[in-house]
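Notes on consecutive records. When two proteins share a document, each keeps its own sequence and its own token line. Never mix them. Below: protein one.
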Amino acid sequence: MLYWARTNLKHSLHDTWWMSETGMICIANFASMDIKPGSMGKPVPGIEAAILDENGEKLPFLTMGELALKVPWPTMMRSIWQDEGRYMEYFRFKGWFLTGDMALIDEEGYFYHQGRTDDLIKVG
């Protein structure tokens, strides 16, 4: 799709990432930056994002883990109606909102979506 748009529309698509629970676009490809195909872009002002492991530790570049947002951010939700347990699960690592999205970050700070944590099967 990205290559088709560049070829046929003579414009690049500006991909973004957000979810209903975040209340806003949190990661985006801005008009002022180069677009890397497949990238969601970089965090918007007011957002700090990271890739965390299963213990809540930041992962190095190009290592897949769970996309997390540092709390607070400008449009942070305060609850989930009638589901406090689900709300607390998003914040199980102090200071971070866990999105449930698997992603990685490159050396330039671009984020790449890889799938959902609930789509993975752990084989031990």
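Protein two starts on the next line and is unrelated to protein one.
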Amino acid sequence: MQMRLVIMLRMSKRLKPIVIQGGMGAAVSDWRLAKAVSMAGQLGVVSGTALDVILVRRLQMGDPGGHLRRALGAFPLQDISQRILDQYFIEGGKPANVPFKSKPILSQKLSRQMQDLLVLGNFVEVYLAKENHNGIVGINLLEKIQSPTLASLYGAMLAGVDYVLMGAGIPRAIPGFLDQLSQHAPVSMKLDVQGAMRDDNFETTFDPGFYELKTKGDLHRPDFLAIVSFATLASVLAKKATGKVNGFIVEGHTAGGHNAPPRSKKQELTLDGQPIYSDRDIPDIKAIKDLGLPFWLAGGYAHPSQVTRALEMGASGVQVGTAFAFCEESGFDDVLKTQALALIRNGDARVFTDPKASPTGFPFKVMQLPGSLSDADSFENRKRICDLGYLRHAYRKEDGKLGWRCPAEPEKQFLAKGGSKEEIAGRQCICNALTANIGMGQSLVDGDCELPLVTAGDDFSLIKHLLGEDKRSYNVQDVLGYLLSQSIPAHRQPNIEAVSADHS
């Protein structure tokens, strides 16, 4: 590993970051990307999605560089770390055609092993992102993926995470959980259950007491930023959340990943099948500003003039995702990244806002890439399977017990669980696709491998600018240097500092 001097823009601790890097996919926003952004003085964010499966698959790939083993060595309970290493680590990595060893699937009541994997997976990612520097690091979670949330938050907090970002739902209870978990207190989360009756009480629980770490003192309570699309939701969270909401990321419908559905009751589609958004879907920035909390604008703000405009509107800054997703430090598979950048450079990149692809029911932006599940033939030829289960829906069975189903699982199974054929049409297995996006797709018994499904925002102009006519790649410093190239208000000027850091 080599030490090199990096010139960074380090913000004073009294100031909010101007740029928040989006928490994308499953380990697209991995620890390397978040660390690079954080070391440059802005808010680097790791994705908290599926970090348990990512941990065990990285270990089975041999943990190149030993980074995971180094982070596991820093976990305060070495018997747990060693147990996971003994079970999953393969020296030199497994053969490419050998399937990854499975892990427990998520459920209402997590097994101790599942709990440990979630705590460790989130601890490792945040620890590595924060290692050997003083920058700030956040973690992004989806409210719709509920059962792993509590253990994931605790693992990230054990590693000293500075911010928690959450969208794709109404995360009203999360601030209170952060308060409780900072004191190692047991917590219970009410699950969203389809068909639940008024008297039903479906909860998932997590007790940090199992880890016996309370004697080491309270944990740092990270700031909580809610990702919202409308002022009404921001107002509800500001006034009725169970604990303090520290700010908002206001995301427009041009941002990548999951989008809020259009507010129109008609839910009309374009001729090619994309949701139609209108003026009703433009966030009321003044109303959000009047709440008196910091906010960042996302979706179409990846340009120096837009950063300045956001600050002039009273925002603390902007969140940018797509430009970071395809930079050198991101976790995207290199072949996929090269393919996507070639399309962007040549002006051939296309993003389709698919109203059906995601099992969540939220519109999902899909980049059209040959050989991925965006190709109709590839989608039709994939054998349906649900072996990861992050986007399964909880539902009430006829006997009153809790069940799980996913509209992307095998049709016969879904229908047997009370699902409808209408729910199945066009659904993609996002879980397996996201792991394929980062080179960790499962090997199948027929010799094939799970295919990727790449998401991106509508705007590629920043990437095109950075690539020019001859470059094949760009890095975090290129993105931030361009975004912050216009004048920043004097009270927001960062301090420029030269630091020596291990950036390998």
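For the record: The chain has 18 helices and 17 strands.
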